[in-house]
Design goal:
The chain is α/β, with parallel strands linked by helices. It folds into two domains: about 140 residues, Rossmann fold, CATH 3.40.50; about 140 residues, Response regulator (Rossmann fold, 3-Layer(aba) Sandwich), CATH 3.40.50.2300. The protein is about 30% helix and about 15% strand. The chain contains nine helices and ten strands. The strands form two sheets. Strands 2-1-3-4-5 form a five-stranded parallel sheet. Strands 7-6-8-9-10 form a five-stranded parallel sheet, with helices on both faces. The radius of gyration is 22 Å and the shape is elongated. About 40% of the residues are buried.
């Protein structure tokens, strides 16, 4: 996906120069400079030069924090995580009215008299330093989140049954690029009656999830190539029944943004590394009962090891 290097509604300066009209205004950041972690993509329409300077400061600060905010242009609007619109700007308002897809996106309206269902409404002055938390709340309660809840409540069509990966033990798929983490999770689950299938990448995990039915999928977030969020979306999209197999995200981060992104991707639960064995058993037991798989027996203290050395980056 190509990200525009200039906002669509601002003059474009010549390379290496800053024009008076755009000096201090928030400028989209090149993807080439992005770290491994995916940024939160934001499209901004309208606002005055002073507000753009304040926004620019917030975006600059976010480069050293989590999540990193990245501004995108109009051509990436449908793929943006959130859109901020100045309802007092006639051009911005006219643009919004012409975008039919906007009703399904997370949108923050500033100084709007009324907003569509699921959109967020705020008044000036905008508290730009608090923008990350404002985006978090808007994403958590936006149309994408509501659509997932409605889809979960809708009756699922009768599918052609996919055989369980194991008929005598609880089938669990572990998707993680770390051999140590996969071995650790296997050591926890197999003594509790689980049949563990391993996938060393998200791509392999997506194919494994399509070939058999699992009581639960344990998914790492950051992996080379496809990340866990994208793999979760693909597995859920390819599922032929309901919300697809239960997916539990595993990550060393506990930021609200990670949970929001996991929720938007369709994950069912969230466990922080290093994984607490009792929490892991409880989650697998719950989803085994939901999928009619053979549930593992309850854990015993003697079989609840801890491995603090597994606290690695996701």
């Amino acid at each position: 996906m190509k990200i525009n290097n200039q906002p669509s509604d601002l003059p474009v300066p010549t390379p290496g120069a800053v024009s008076p009209a755009t000096q201090g205004l928030a400028q989209p950041v090149s993807v080439d400079a992005a770290p491994a972690e995916a940024p939160l993509m934001l499209l901004v329409k309208g606002f005055n030069p002073m507000e753009h300077r304040l926004l620019n400061g917030t975006v600059m600060l976010s480069r050293r924090r989590h999540p990193r905010i990245e501004l995108v242009g109009d051509e990436c609007g449908e793929n943006a995580d959130a859109i901020m619109i100045d309802a007092g700007d006639p051009q911005a308002k006219a643009w919004a009215e012409s975008q039919t897809w906007l009703k399904h996106k997370t949108v923050i309206w500033v100084d709007a008299h009324a907003v569509p269902h699921g959109h967020t409404q705020i008044k000036r002055p905008v508290q730009w330093p608090a923008l990350p938390m404002l985006l978090a709340r808007a994403l958590e309660h936006g149309p994408s989140s509501s659509a997932q809840l409605q889809h979960a409540a809708a009756p699922a069509p009768t599918p052609t049954p996919t055989p369980l990966a194991s008929t005598t033990r609880t089938p669990v798929l572990v998707i993680d690029d770390s051999l140590a983490v996969r071995a650790y999770l296997r050591s926890l689950l197999e003594p509790r009656g689980c049949a563990v299938t391993e996938a060393e990448s998200a791509e392999v995990g997506v194919e494994a999830a399509a070939s058999a039915r699992y009581a639960c999928i344990l998914m790492d977030v950051l992996m080379p190539g496809m990340d866990g969020y994208e793999a979760c979306r693909r597995i859920k999209a390819r599922a032929r029944t309901g919300e697809g197999p239960p997916i539990v995200m595993l990550t060393s981060k506990s930021s609200p943004f990670d949970r929001i992104r996991g929720k938007m991707a369709g994950c069912d639960a969230y466990l922080t590394k290093p994984v607490n064995p009792n929490d892991l058993y409880e989650v697998v037991l719950r989803y085994a009962a939901m999928t009619n798989a053979t549930p593992p027996p309850p854990p015993s203290p003697a079989q609840s090891p801890t491995q603090p050395w597994l606290r690695h980056g996701t």
